[in-house]
Amino acid sequence: MTDLNPADLRLLSHTTSDGVTTRELVLGEVTAALWAPEHAAPGTPLVLLGHGGGRQHRHHPAMSGRARLLTDVGFRAVALDVDGHGPRPRTPDDEEEVAVLHAARRAGEPIGPIVERYNADLARRTVPEWRALLAGLLAVPEIGDAPVGYWGITLGTAIGVPLVAEEPLIQAAAFGLFWPSTLVEAARRITVPIEFDLQWDDEQIPREGGLALFDAFASTQKSLHVNAGKHMELPRFEAASAVRFFERHLRP
Amino acid sequence: MTDLNPADLRLLSHTTSDGVTTRELVLGEVTAALWAPEHAAPGTPLVLLGHGGGRQHRHHPAMSGRARLLTDVGFRAVALDVDGHGPRPRTPDDEEEVAVLHAARRAGEPIGPIVERYNADLARRTVPEWRALLAGLLAVPEIGDAPVGYWGITLGTAIGVPLVAEEPLIQAAAFGLFWPSTLVEAARRITVPIEFDLQWDDEQIPREGGLALFDAFASTQKSLHVNAGKHMELPRFEAASAVRFFERHLRP
Questions:
Q1: How much is the pLDDT for B252?
Q2: Is the pLDDT of residue B238 over 60?
Q3: Å from A237 to nearest chain B CA?
Q4: CB contact under 8 A, A223 and B224
Q5: What is the SS3 assignment for A11?
Q6: Is residue B13's pLDDT more than 90?
């Protein structure tokens, strides 16, 4: 990991479609995308979108879909590619972790310990990248001194919890669907408003684990949304709920 | 308790203000209020509003406020006065239960066992009243064959859970803030979509009790909304969430 200088942020191509401007960003090895309502003013709220694991990346439909919900309410959104995802190559260690994970899944063994370990490593790499990217973005005059939120589930929570614990500019965060053990310590340092999603019949994450992680946040304003269903069955209406959460807390 | 004949339902005075028509209803000893958007068509969704305990009644601001949220999305709402509430006199047994409850509260003793016992008694009296009132309302041509929901927390849940378990016309229900022991058996018979509110720092209802009641519902579509805060601190945005829940499930 090289030290990133926020001033090196480059805003590359941009396209505008259906009232939304999408820009490609580069900061060192970090690739990212920024969505904004056309003609958004400086100070428009900005939500950092953390993508999930596996084959997800900055332009995965889960990211562009959430970005669209946010631009629909007048907000900006930004997603970066976590190291080893999208165009960013996996290291041999990454390949090894992914192979171990796939083998455990095929064998029907618990994947929790593997995902927790691997995602904690990705978090160590990604938190400084997010912080540098955020500092670079807020220095762009057209973005300006914006209220900032963070939204990510699964891997996006594994990275987001330590990020929000460290980054004082983030004023509200939506998380969900992760095990507690590697995150509880950071969660105890988070005091900004939280919305957290948990699946009641999650076949990977024990119910008590999700409740323990929610319990750990020090935030006086925190909401837990539990839905019946398995890990992959988070209802789509929870995305709209997260957007309303950010509207309550980031709208100036 | 006398047997009620739905055909005896009388629609008394009505007033229209700000696009909402409010009607006073009487069925035997039961007093109720019905709110509707002016010119609402037959078949407009109807939500039964169960008021809370203590000094609440059909025209308590918590009821008229929820009714307003529902008429704002084009729905009808109806609230009845539970026996011993509003204009309906308390029996000597009711007075005794209320006195015991107040004494326990003053002494700082747990009120759960008293509230559960008293509210179970009120539920036995009120469930047949709700069912007769609903049958009477659906027989009114201007109301017609409407999709029906039920919404009530605290006492409204103590009455609503056995009501929804027994009344097949109710297609969705929003509940919250009650102990499990008197309700779990009925909850296990409920299969319609549920939204349930629980306060994470409830000083009256143990956290595990609220989770156990949510767990008991047999519904394949059920959502639990937990918020940081004490019993009386349920955030106002949960009312808007319940309205969206009814829109998802009752909108034809």
A1: 81
A2: yes
A3: 10
A4: no
A5: strand
A6: no
Q: What is the 3-state secondary structure (H, E, C) of chain B?
A: CCCCCHHHCEEEEEEEECCEEEEEEEECCEEEEEEEECCCCCCCCEEEECCCCCCCCCCCHHHHHHHHHHHHCCCEEEEECCCCCCCCCCCHHHHHHHHHHHHHHHCCCCCHHHHHHHHHHHHHHHHHHHHHHHHHHHCCCCCCCCCEEEECCCHHHHHHHHHHHHCCCEEEEEEECCCCCCCHHHHCCCCCCEEEEEECCCCCCCHHHHHHHHHHCCCCCEEEEEECCCHHHCCCHHHHHHHHHHHHHHCC
Q: How confident is the model at residue A3 (pLDDT cuts 50, 70, 90)?
A: confident
Q: Over range B11-37, report the average pLDDT.
A: 95
> Would you place residue A2 in the very low, low, confident or very high pLDDT band (cuts 50, 70, 90)?
low
Which residues of chain B are within 8 Å of residue A235 when distances are taken between CB atoms?
223
Report CB contact under 8 Å: B228, A237: no
A202-235 residue pLDDT tens? 999 999 999 999 999 999 999 999 999 999 999 9
Q: Minimal Cα distance from A248: which residue of B?
A: B237
CB B111 within 8 A of CB B101: yes
Q: Do A228 and B226 touch (CB under 8 A)?
A: no
The model carries a pTM of 0.94
DSSP 8-state code for residue A8: G
B3 has a pLDDT exceeding 90: no
Exposed, middle or buried by CB within 10 Å (0-12, 13-18, 19+), for B107?
exposed
The residues of A whose Cβ lies within 8 A of any Cβ of B are 200, 211, 214-215, 219-228, 235, 237, 241, 244, 248
Q: Report the SS3 class of residue A42.
A: coil
What is d(CA B87, CA B81) in angstroms, rounded to the nearest whole number?
Answer: 8
CB A152 within 8 A of CB A77: no
Average pLDDT (B64-72) is 98
Instruction: Inform me whether the pLDDT recorded for B2 exceeds 90.
Output: no
CB contacts of B235 in chain A (<8 Å) are 223
- Output b/e per residue, A59-72; b: 16+ Cβ within 10 A: bbebbbebbebbbe
Whether B227 and A223 lie within 8 Å, measured CB to CB: yes
Burial class (CB in 10 A: 0-12, 13-18, 19+), B12: exposed
> What ipTM was reported for this prediction?
0.92
